[in-house]
Amino acid sequence: MDYSVVDPDELEAVENRPCDLRRLSDAAGLEHVAINRFRAEPGEQLPLAYHYHEQQEEAFVVTAGTLHVETPDGEFEVGEGELFAAQPESAHRAYNPDDADETLEVIAVGAPPAEDDAVAYDPDE
Question: Organism's domain of life (predicted)?
């Protein structure tokens, strides 16, 4: 049997990201799911761009603050303790708005794990 306990604050932040990103699944040795912790200050977004995944399902559990998610169907506000899910090919951009009063913290889960699965989405096209 194999078990892991991971403290996100002890992991190195991923460089060149719009907010603080810690890869939890890598540290835990998990291969079939991507689990990440995002911490976004007001005005920061979570992903690198408005995007969708061809195969990956993605879920965001808000642990602090309010997550805002822009989609072609409108904007969602996801409160602390709530979950936002995006099915494959569902474009989204998650962020903490400029006028937010607090830091946003989110645990993101994606399966299957696929770093090269993200496709940029332009809402004007």
Answer: Archaea
